[in-house]
Amino acid sequence: MRITDDRYSAELDKFDLAVRMIRHEARTGTIRACTGFSEDRIRKIYGTYFKPVSGAAAIRRHRGKSPRRIQHFMSSAPRQLEATVLAGLFLLCKAGQLDEAGRMNRVPGTDRVDLGQRLCQAYEAYRGLHPDPQLSFEWAWNLYHALVDSHELYFALCDSCGGHYVQDAYALDYRRCPFCELKDHHPPPHDRTPP
After folding, report:
1. How far apart are CA 140 and CA 3, in angstroms?
2. Residue ranges of domains in the chain
3. 47 partner at 20 to 30 Å CA-CA among 29, 59, 68, 193?
4. pLDDT in tens, 37-60
5. How far apart, in whole angstroms, are the C-alpha atoms of residue 46 and residue 97?
6. Pairing of strands 164-168, 153-157
7. C-alpha–C-alpha distance, residues 91 and 57, integer Å
8. Which residues, other chains included, contact 111 with Cβ-Cβ below 8 Å and sequence gap of 6+?
9. Which residues, at least 6 apart from 141, have a Cβ–Cβ distance to it below 8 Å?
10. Predicted model pTM
11. What is the DSSP letter of 189?
12. The dihedral of CA 127, 128, 134, 139: what is its sign?
């Protein structure tokens, strides 16, 4: 393979990732972080390939910085459960790996395009599991960085079921996962006793 072929292939991977991320309504800064493309180039890709078509839902372009608050993931048991599922999919798609303390770290040797593809793969699997998701792609991006970069979130161990769940590293932890929390407060219909 010639060097020009290799360069073309790398450029095509970046372009495919940019298109994939635009479909997930990722912000320009997020796409730029994964592809290295300029803001102008990202806007041109959007303008060329995502023109509004009558009868089809338009892909929205979100402006401003990505969300950064981790309280969004801890505000309710259902949201914490979805964050846990998504974080587990990050691991499954090899966007991160766990250490013994339950902290997620980057997989060595992963470049930014490969990382972007793995995050997209995890997010697409999450959307398949949650047809009405509470977390957008930008919140998934925030979740990943809160787990990997700032370590504000980590995987705790539930005393009830022994499963792992995403937990705020600086908050009081009752060592109870959102799965057990929801199960105890919303038992299946056949477990409920009639009034």
Report:
1. 35
2. 3-49, 71-191
3. 68
4. 999 999 999 888 777 655 555 677
5. 33
6. antiparallel
7. 32
8. none
9. 26, 30, 66, 119
10. 0.84
11. G
12. negative
